[in-house]
Specification:
This protein has helices spanning 2-14, 18-22, 37-52, 76-93, 130-143, 169-177, 191-202, 227-236, 271-280, 291-304, 321-338; strands at 25-26, 95-105, 110-116, 149-155, 159-166, 210-216, 239-246, 250-256, 262-267, 284-288, 310-319. It is an alpha/beta fold and 349 residues long. Strand 4 (149-155) and strand 5 form a beta hairpin.
């Protein structure tokens, strides 16, 4: 008995809930427009009956006849028939639920972003400064990747691994947003050390392709590892290096002084070294003098380093029209039974 209740009766009554009906997708949704037509049919039938029904102008009782609740039972057969038609419409509309499963095949790319957070990244030739512009574009780059493991290294006078290569893009986006000037106490630009940390993160990565993207605006002024040696070491471990030089050469804005007047400093990117680093690790060097150019650089890298991720979609559709068809047939049989009782007038039908 319990098995019959769980397999037959529970689904029958569960299908009557609004939340269940709202959760369906319908194979023929336009048929649902017939539902409001059903009560109109009964109203039209009643109006026509009132028009053509013969009336006998003879009273067999004295005074006004008192009404009784049992008189409402004469509407019961019509109500049952209306529900039968409504359930029939629901069955014809074919309520369905679709389960979709996505399987990914192939292997993504392992990427490490090495971001300069030294004091020179405060320069305002990229608005509001170089670091904030780099963060915005890097975050958009991360959002566009699918299936790749991406890590984060930051450096100034020293270099630290903030996040190992991961597919948790929300966590990576949060860590990029939290980057700030002065987060590393030792000032300077340790490009070689940053490449060494990135190489250490990627050398045992299982990905088919390993890429390091270095963003910096200066020359190597700190650290114990020469940048060119670090690039050659990265190449030996199978890494490809893209170097991005941020900012303009010459006089650029640098905050304001004590009187609130804008300050200017002279800056120079060691473009020669940045090109040598990229060439040593079979990558490319890019120069980004404004945010639009920086976006273009990341767009080019995105096109160059595409991961081969294939998606296979499986769709499994379940029909639930049978439950409503059972209700429609059951109500129809009940209506036929009620027609043979005192509740209906055979002469009017």
């Amino acid at each position: 008995m319990q098995q019959f209740w769980q397999q037959v009766l529970v689904p029958l009554f569960d299908g009557l809930r609004y939340s269940t009906l709202a959760g369906y997708s319908w194979a023929h949704p336009r048929l649902l427009l017939l539902l409001p037509v059903i009560p109109l049919l009964f109203l039209l039938r009643e109006l026509l009956a009132q028009r053509w029904r013969s009336k006998l102008a003879v009273a067999f009782v004295r005074g006004q006849a008192r009404g009784h609740w049992s008189a409402l039972l004469r509407f019961l057969p019509d109500l049952v028939l209306a529900f039968s038609l409504a359930f029939g419409v629901l069955a014809l509309a074919r309520p369905q639920r679709t389960d979709e499963r996505i399987e990914q095949s192939g292997r993504g790319i392992d990427i490490v972003l090495a971001v300069d957070v030294s004091a020179s990244m405060e320069l305002g030739d990229l608005l509001p400064n170089r670091l904030e512009a780099a963060k915005r574009v890097a975050r958009n780059f991360v959002r566009g990747r699918r299936g790749d493991r991406i890590g984060l290294v930051v450096f100034a006078g020293e270099a630290y691994s903030v996040l190992p290569p991961t597919t948790d893009y929300e966590l990576l986006d949060e860590e990029l947003q939290n980057l700030r000037l002065g987060m590393i106490a030792a000032d300077g630009t340790a490009i070689g050390t940053a490449l060494g940390v990135a190489t250490n993160r990627l050398r045992d990565a299982p990905g088919r392709s390993r890429v390091c993207i270095l963003l910096s605006d200066g020359e190597n002024t700190a650290g114990n590892l020469a940048p060119l040696t670090a690039a050659q070491l990265a190449h030996a471990f199978g890494l490809k290096l893209y170097t991005i030089g941020l900012g303009k050469d010459g006089i650029v804005p640098y905050g304001v002084d004590e009187q609130g007047q804008p300050r200017f400093v002279e800056t120079q990117l060691d473009e020669t070294t940045m090109r040598q680093l990229a060439a040593a690790a079979e990558g490319q060097f890019f120069r980004a003098t404004d945010e639009q150019a920086l976006k273009s650089v990341f767009g080019q890298i995105d096109r160059l380093e595409k991961s081969e991720i294939r998606q296979t979609r499986y769709r499994n559709t379940h029909d639930y029209y049978r439950f409503y068809l059972y209700w429609a047939v059951g109500m129809w049989l009940l209506w036929l039974g009620l027609k043979n009782t005192f509740l209906t007038n055979a002469l009017e039908d």
